[in-house]
């Protein structure tokens, strides 16, 4: 081939890059955006259309990083040609129809099936006699990974089809935006990356938040004449399919326009274009393939909402859990009608992966959910940013927890203010705004949520620009929220991976008292649907770390109640000590059954200390008397329970 040496160099460079990016992509770590990858591929195609890497679909699955069993696809999973604008799309239709003339085909321009191009991971699910036998990721198109156990947990993958079919159905694993909020709160990493990582986890945790939408089937009992019939068949089998429509060329353009102007932004999942196919399967067959890609199908992409900008600074902000979030300050660019100036970089691992530094040119995008996202570093000018070793707020040394840098100084103002904001935010105490919180922390009146309940009117009224009126309002509102339900109490604490939703999940699964939640083991929690081992561990560790703080909350009267409280012992707290006629567990169950709360120790909030000898002079009993707690024996306790039972029966 007569390529000059410089273009030969470029070809080698491009091939090298594409190979690297492909490997990374299939190992779940996309180094560049699809848009950038496509651009490089286009450049290579222009220089050397026959280059081998353009023909290899996907990349070999790396042997080292995975323990999933490899599996060969009975029918390879290909990829699609693409069109990035109207001209290319029209060109594709024209080319198909030109070729179709030779085979005496009806023009496909009049019979196209249009559907959404889901931004996820392709999956083939095989059924034998209606029973799910295996699910294989796309991998390199020939060989993928058998992730059957994970696929079974995903939404939309039935263990059994309504008919005893032997069929291979193909679809896309996606993470809906609403499911991401519930399953992976606090992250705004691209859902696709989340779905990729989660679907290949060896423990399967989080797979229940993923959804599979199907768009193709191979085998089965029926011959289909059109693409539409296949979609209808999938629907008939009870499977989820993306919306589809049969139309002509102009109709396809209209649909594309509707999506890019409005519909796409309203979806609960991400799509990056439309897939348009000849509806007639005979036409698909006759048009055949070119370079492993079917001629009769095209991915008609949306214009990217991305622009290149330059990094001015990278700031490291310590958040309420101590996690440090890197934020890129870029030269303002207008993307999709909004000016983007700050882009959240999520965590230190992401910064290291990007190799980003001040002065670098970066591709900034706005995703479906309008959150600015840094797609990639386009050109590096100068070194990567130095990873800080000290907290920007308190100067304490930073530690590393997983992908995050964390400030380990619990007195750090960023952590204290953030945690107070979380506490009042979860409870909707509007009067306690960020500014007042900052003042309270600054004045060292508040170090943790429990301190809020020790505040006096004078404390608040003494602050700059505050008066007795607002002070009274704040304190009244704090008290008005009590008692807190257990989920609100736990969710307000602002622990890692432990938001309100997680707390509700625990309560719904029978962990409905603080005692039970605190006694739960990571193994017990990991077994709950929607939890997962990592989160379970995080919850247990978080609770242990906060046990003293929780005690201090109880001590100031913030005692959580079960959401369904209302039994005869509602609002009453009990502690059992020493040897009792029956197992302690039995008494505790009685308390909870009647809506009461079991405390583990003697605090000011304890109403009853149950013991064999109420006149005992033990330290516990003495302490209880000092607090005004009633010391009773087990008979007296049973009398209370009987009274509670009969009062409940009266209702
Ligand atoms: Zn700090």
Short description:
The protein is globular, with a radius of gyration of 31 Å. The termini are far apart. Mean pLDDT is 86; it is low at 57-66.
Key terms:
single chain, 651 residues, alpha+beta, Helix Hairpins, D-amino Acid Aminotransferase, Chain A, domain 1, OB fold (Dihydrolipoamide Acetyltransferase, E2P), 7-stranded antiparallel β-sheet, 5-stranded mixed β-sheet, 25 helices, globular, binds zinc ion
Describe what this molecule looks like in 3D:
The protein is an alpha+beta fold and 651 residues long. It has 5 domains: 5-56, Helix Hairpins; 81-301, DNA ligase/mRNA capping enzyme (D-amino Acid Aminotransferase, Chain A, domain 1, 2-Layer Sandwich); 306-407, Beta Barrel (OB fold (Dihydrolipoamide Acetyltransferase, E2P)), CATH 2.40.50; 442-555, 5' to 3' exonuclease, C-terminal subdomain (DNA polymerase, domain 1), CATH 1.10.150.20; 573-650, Rossmann fold, CATH 3.40.50.10190. Strand 17 (361-366) and strand 18 (372-379) form a beta hairpin. The chain is globular. Bound molecules: zinc ion. Residues 318, 391, 393-394, 396, 407, 409, 412, 414 line the site of zinc ion (ZN).
